[in-house]
Every structure is written in C-alpha cells, then in structure tokens.
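Hi R.,

Here's the input for the 2-acetamido-2-deoxy-beta-D-glucopyranose complex you asked about:
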Amino acid sequence: MSFRLLVFLCLVIVARCGNTLSIERRSNHFVKLPVVHSTNRQVFAKVYQDKRAIATVPLAKRADVAYYAKLNIGTPPQPVFVQLDTGSFELWVNPNCTTLRGSSDVRFCEAIGHYDPSSSSSSIELTTTKTLRYGIGSATVQYVVDSVGLAGTDTLLQEVQFGVALDTVDEFSGILGIGHGENLTIRYKNLIDQLADQGATSTKAFSLALGSKSEQEGVIIFGGLDTSKFSGTLQTQPIIPARDSPDGVPRYWINMQSLSITPPSGETKRYPNTSMAVFLDSGATLTLLPTRLANAIAADFGAEATDSNGFYPVDCKFNDQPGTLDFAFVGVIIRVPYREVVREIQTTFGIQCYLGISPSEDFVLLGDTMLRSAYAVFDQTNNAIHIAQYSNCGSNEKEITAKMTLGSTKGDCEAPDFEAGNANSDPLSLDNGTGVGSNDSTDADSSASTFDILGPYQRLTIWATLFGDQDDYSSPYMSTAHANDRQTRAI
Ligand SMILES: *[C@@H]1O[C@H](CO)[C@@H](O)[C@H](O)[C@H]1NC(C)=O
Ligand SMILES: *[C@@H]1O[C@H](CO)[C@@H](O)[C@H](O)[C@H]1NC(C)=O
Ligand SMILES: *[C@@H]1O[C@H](CO)[C@@H](O)[C@H](O)[C@H]1NC(C)=O
Ligand SMILES: *[C@@H]1O[C@H](CO)[C@@H](O)[C@H](O)[C@H]1NC(C)=O
Ligand SMILES: *[C@@H]1O[C@H](CO)[C@@H](O)[C@H](O)[C@H]1NC(C)=O
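And here is the predicted structure with 2-acetamido-2-deoxy-beta-D-glucopyranose in place:
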C-alpha cells in the first residue's frame, strides 16, 4: 500500500518535473489559440457536458456575430469563453444573462461559461470596481486577481487582474480586450502586457485571422504569426498616435488610402474621398463608414436606404456573386468578397440579407465583416499593424522576434480566387432542419420581433470607457472634451 502510494507520488512528481522542463525548454515564445465563431456548433457542443442545452442554442441565428477565445481561469481551471476585442483594453467575465431579452441570447450567455472566484484557491478579490461602457451595453465589474490559462496550450499566467461582473447591460459574454494596456489606457497590466511580462511572448504583438464565414474557426497567435494564413507580403501600416487620431485614444487606428468596388463585371470603381483614418475592431460585427460612403456602397448593392434598425437590406443573391469591396492601404489592397460582407440572418420570415456596413458620422471602423478577409499582425512594440490578404493554406507558425522585419514577411498562400463566387456556400444558410440547429424554427424566439433577433448582432465594443471613473488612467492626450464627446456618442 505505502509502496504503491510512493510510486504514485513519484509518478506525479516526474510528470510535474517533465512538464516544468518542457515549458522551460520551449524555444518558441508564442501562444496559439483557436478563434471560435459563435456559430461553431461542434466547438460549443463539445465543450459543455449538457448536450441538450447546446442543442437548443439557436446558433444559426448568430450568423456572424462574434469571435471567441477560451480561457481557463483559476485553480482548478474554470473554462470560460470571452469575445476577442481589439477595440477595448480589459478582460472581464460573467455577464448577467437574466438581463437579456431574447431567449437565444440567454441560452448562449449561459453556455459560454461562468467563473466563480470562491471556487478558486488562487483567487484574490480586490475591492476596486469600475463600469466599462461599450458602444452597446456596459459591465460593472469588481476586480479579481487569479491565474489565467490559455485553453489548449501550456501557457498559464499567474496573478492576472481582470473584472468579474457585478452587473451588466446588454452583454451576452465576457470580453477579452486586446488593445493597448498599462500606462496607455489602464493602470494595471492587461493580458497582452502579462503575456510579454511573464515570458510567454517576446514581443507585444499578436496576429489575428478570424476565419471566413464558412470556416467557422480562425486563429490568434500571441507573439507569433502563421505564414500559411495569407497571400502576398505583410505590409506595415503605422498606428496613428493617439494625439493625432480621430478620438484621441490609443487604439489600432491606421490610414486607409481608398475604397473601391469590383463588381462581377470586373470594372473596378473607386469611391471618391475615401482616404481616411480607420480603426480595426474585432469586437464590432459591422464595418462603420461615413454616411455618404456607406450610402454609395449600399446603392451599388441595390439598397436605397437603411431600414428602421439602421441596416441596409440587400438581395441574398450577392452572396453567390464573385464581386469584392477593395480596401487599399500602403502597399496592399484587401479584397473582401461579397459573401463575407453580406450578412445572412435567420428571421421569423426566413433568411434575410443585410449589408455588413452601416452608416456612422461618429466613428469609422473596420469590423468583422471586413477583418475576416485580412490577416493582421497587431504590433504594439513597433506601433504598427502589418496586414495582408487572408488566405488559408495550412499552418506554418513562427515566433515574432525583435529582429524580424514583419513588413516584408511573405505568405505561403496563393491569393484567393475572387472570380469563383460562392462555391462553398455558407453552411448556415443551408441548414434546412438537420443537425443541432434543427429546433431553431420552433424556438421561443420565433415569436420575437425582427428587432429582437437583429439587435444583438450589432456588436460594438469600441467605446470602452477610459474616462469618468476614479481609477481610470488619464493619458495626457485625452482631454475632457473628448470624454464628454464620447458620452454623448454612446448609442
Ligand atoms: C441581473 O439582472 C437582474 C435583472 O435586472 C437583476 O434582478 C439581478 O439582480 C442581476 N444580478 C446580478 C448578480 O447583478
Ligand atoms: C508602466 O510604467 C511603470 C513606471 O514607469 C513601469 O514600471 C511599467 O513597467 C510600465 N508598464 C508597462 C507595461 O510598460
Ligand atoms: C470630395 O472632397 C472634395 C474636396 O474636399 C469635395 O469638393 C467633394 O465634393 C467631395 N466629394 C464627395 C463625393 O463627397
Ligand atoms: C435538406 O435536408 C435533407 C434531409 O432532410 C438533406 O438530404 C438535404 O441535403 C438537405 N438540403 C440541404 C440544402 O442542406
Ligand atoms: C424539438 O423540441 C421539442 C420540444 O422541445 C422536442 O420534443 C423535440 O424532440 C425536439 N426535436 C429535435 C429534433 O431536437
């Protein structure tokens, strides 16, 4: 008995030693995480034991909502999915699901996981609270310090500060803000800071491939990049310094040179006056452009005006046409196929299509409807975004080192075939009553108004607040005028 126990203990010790050694010997300082689309039935079904609960989440209604990463928080680890957001700066978990109106939102919210600090032996609850305001919704959080593991990797960060929601409004998941962190937007180290600080990455840069609508999965690599996820050569776009940016906040603002459309006829048309600062926001479903420009693009998709929800309804036939919207930056044009910019939404009246672009006089941003056609390295260390055309030809991952000139890194892939149209149709639009989503049509939501179903799709996390609270960090660039301005802009 005692001998067996001894052997067992030895095995445990050996296993632990081996593990520690493998971490220490690891030569690559990068961490790869899958980016899970909220529509990915396999992933969300596998992760949770309660198959029935998942089966009733009408994911088909969430055609292109948001992109998630899985974290393991605390000791023992508690798995939680959080929305990846380049537009904000902080991590928080535990939305209040009971405040949501749509039953599908409630179920999704309940399925993404919950963190209980009192069940974690490594948690430290702080007394500080803060209200984070987003373009849509808000979260009042209390800060906690605990270990955070990146699911599926051996990276376990110690003593990471993040928020645990006390209450939320219109939020159906926690958010992982991967914008600039300590000393720029907040007073403590955010996840990007901690990854570099604790040696998991050797640079404050990460690469993001959201994945196409039909792929249902993308990849984020902290401290690394995957040359088999783009064609052409990465082109360096300097991040506009906060003081020169449209809102005075340190964000991923870069200059767009022009915007054009290449319809199936092949004749490219350039929209006038489209050289402007744009902000890359993975936390926004839609791309927001100045009204005159959004209207001009919508007109080319046959939409004369926005509907009462502020969306341009378009014919679903555009999903099958081989046209592109072409976003030009220094040295590179990112071509966004029609099928990626057209959103298909299941409503009570069947599938309806909308342009993934909305008019905005306040803020110009490239959201998921544009970003999933780009491969982008967000490089805080060099204050630059390095971008190329997204194309998926396998995986070839590399660490980003200080010596590396990212701006000339070649991709392994061929450019996508933009003439092909929609050969692989979005499986979501084909769901005709098979698979886990089969009960969608009998879902309680089918009696909800179109607005209820549409509402949550427009994720906007751009206005994560930097102002107003005692514990906020005030950067010298930020004036009170900006703060007030932003308050009134909240939608
Ligand atoms: C969640 O929201 C409901 C409805 O507004 C409220 O009654 C409840 O107190 C909230 N729960 C928490 C933990 O804040
Ligand atoms: C923020 O500034 C403090 C004081 O200068 C410094 O010790 C710390 O390393 C800085 N943090 C980051 C993430 O640069
Ligand atoms: C483009 O900008 C120029 C100069 O600012 C202006 O004269 C012109 O009307 C603008 N065109 C459009 C279509 O907005
Ligand atoms: C519709 O469902 C049937 C089985 O019920 C299947 O054979 C068929 O391929 C489906 N059609 C599409 C377009 O998915
Ligand atoms: C659909 O839902 C009903 C009622 O909840 C249930 O009885 C039925 O088995 C479900 N069908 C499928 C295919 O899951």
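One thing worth noting: The longest helix spans residues 2-25.

Cheers,
M.
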